[in-house]
């Protein structure tokens, strides 16, 4: 809901700025980058943690988890500021979707190696649904943009 609300506000603001004949303001651009970067950074960071945790001894330490999560989060934030508006959302949401889909094979491998238990497969299935939803939403939004 946070992302949708911010996105609707940003789109409305961009339309008002265009109707007034003004270029996009720095504040609108900044909020757009922060919104997409934060959301995709959180989703991708958690997915990468779920990918790594079964392969760390005892699930990893707080320091390991923090390092991985914040590295991924900052990468997504950096990409949000470096990419153009029309590239930012599709690319970052595709990365988040693929990271979530990759959890299923990682869980299956961890289960075969005895590093994960059966309920982990449930987490993998939820991540698979989320990943498919993210990829589908990217496809639908790019179809609408190109039409």
TrEMBL record:
It comes from the Bacteria. The keyword Transmembrane applies. The lineage of its organism: Bacteria, Pseudomonadati, Pseudomonadota, Alphaproteobacteria, Acetobacterales. The chain crosses the membrane at residues 29-56, 62-83, 90-110, 116-135. Keywords: Membrane, Transmembrane, Transmembrane helix. This is Uncharacterized protein.
């Amino acid at each position: 809901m946070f992302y949708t609300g911010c996105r609707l506000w940003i789109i409305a603001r961009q339309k008002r700025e265009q109707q007034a004949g003004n270029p996009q303001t720095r504040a609108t651009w900044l909020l757009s980058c922060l919104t997409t970067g934060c959301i995709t950074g959180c989703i991708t960071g958690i997915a990468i943690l779920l990918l790594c945790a079964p392969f760390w001894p005892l699930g990893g330490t707080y320091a390991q988890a923090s390092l991985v999560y914040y590295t991924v989060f900052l990468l997504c934030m950096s990409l949000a500021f470096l990419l153009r508006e029309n590239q930012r959302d599709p690319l970052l949401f595709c990365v988040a979707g693929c990271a979530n889909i990759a959890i299923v094979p990682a869980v299956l491998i961890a289960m075969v190696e005895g590093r994960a238990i059966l309920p982990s497969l449930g987490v993998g299935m939820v991540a698979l649904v989320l990943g498919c939803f993210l990829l589908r939403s990217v496809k639908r939004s790019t179809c609408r943009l190109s039409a």
